[in-house]
Amino acid sequence: MNVAVFDTHKFDRVALEQANAGKHQLRFLEARLSEHTAELARGCDVACCFANDHGDAKTLQILKSVGVRLIALRSAGFNHVDIKSAATLGLTVVRVPEYSPYSVAEHAVALLMCLNRKIHKAYNRIHELNFSLDGLMGFDVHGKTVGIVGTGRIGQVFGKIMNGFGCRILAFDKTPDLQWAKKVDAEYVSLEFLLRDSDIISLHIPLSAQTKHIIDSAALAGMKKTAILINTGRGALIETTALTQALKSHSIGGACLDVYEEEEGIFFSDLSGPGIDDDVLARLITFPNVLMTSHQAFFTFEALKNIADTAISSISTFEINGDLSAVKVI
Ligand code: NAI
């Protein structure tokens, strides 16, 4: 199969080439998928897309017209592809539903511990020979209440780790998993209760019409003034301007963000030369109690291997069967 790999980065090129082992012809493209770049897939059977590729209806139409039959996502989330339009056009869409949930859950914990214990500040200070502890005080995570919004694969691993820290765990999910809850001593509660009672809140739900801006100004107002909000899910789960307001008015303790509403075109790029023209982001990263990474939670050796292996295996199965209904995302 001829595969157009959009938004290729050095790291996934290596993993994909290893997983592919010469089976398919991979056309590595640096461009992100959009209506302006879809033409680059001409002659390819497959468009292999990453988290910030943009598969709206128009883009999918172009992909279809240039010969693409399969969209193989290198991500778990699929909010960036118009699934209904894909179905109408007869395009099969597959994703990587299960890659190391540890990668994301562990990153959420890393962000929390870094912000809480001010490791990022201490690191810089030490290099300037400043060995003072002023301003570096954190809090014990042990004994704190942790609210997990979304207890699927990643949320459950996060819960297990926080259980290990000795935290009280509150959970919110439209489909509670009572067996998991029993194992980690978690209690399912309403979202309002979770937001009100938690010292640490971590978002692990997918982005959808129902979950967009689930954390808006009202939700933020319902949190403790000291609460730490962690988002490794998708940027638009949080209404960024509302978060900025909450940070400005000191009505939230801090935020650990691996994703950002308008990250497309910014994250994964080196903009240290040209700078950014997103004023909301520029303001957000000035808060001393905000720690941001650029969508790197998935970025472990194991996860990249899982992603590449699953994407290539889906493409091979599609080549043999001409259909992948068993793994379609809809
Ligand atoms: P999952 O599908 O295993 O779990 C999602 C959970 O959210 C499910 O338990 C589901 O019932 C719940 N849920 C969905 N809609 C809901 C709603 N409206 N209200 C309440 N609960 C709802 O997904 P997984 O693997 O745990 O991933 C979660 C999200 O993490 C992904 O959708 C993706 O957006 C994000 N992610 C981020 C990565 C990163 O690098 N930052 C990497 C991988 C995933």
Descriptive notes:
36% of the residues lie in helices and 14% in strands. With 330 residues, the chain is an alpha/beta fold. The chain has a 7-stranded parallel β-sheet, sandwiched between helices. Strands 2-1-3-4-5 form a 5-stranded parallel β-sheet, sandwiched between helices. The mean pLDDT is 95. α4 (101-117) packs across α6 (153-164). The chain has helices spanning 10-20, 57-65, 83-89, 101-117, 119-127, 153-164, 178-184, 191-197, 217-221, 240-248, 279-284, 301-321, and strands at residues 2-5, 25-28, 46-49, 70-73, 92-94, 145-149, 168-172, 186-188, 200-203, 228-231, 254-257, 290-292. It is globular and about 60 Å long. The structure holds 1,4-dihydronicotinamide adenine dinucleotide (NAI). 1,4-dihydronicotinamide adenine dinucleotide binds at residues 76-77, 101, 104, 150-155, 173-175, 204-207, 210-211, 232-234, 258-259, 295, 297-298.
Map the helices and strands.
Blueprint: E1 2-5, H1 10-20, E2 25-28, E3 46-49, H2 57-65, E4 70-73, H3 83-89, E5 92-94, H4 101-117, H5 119-127, E6 145-149, H6 153-164, E7 168-172, H7 178-184, E8 186-188, H8 191-197, E9 200-203, H9 217-221, E10 228-231, H10 240-248, E11 254-257, H11 279-284, E12 290-292, H12 301-321
Residues 76-77, 101, 104, 150-155, 173-175, 204-207, 210-211, 232-234, 258-259, 295, 297-298 line the site of 1,4-dihydronicotinamide adenine dinucleotide.
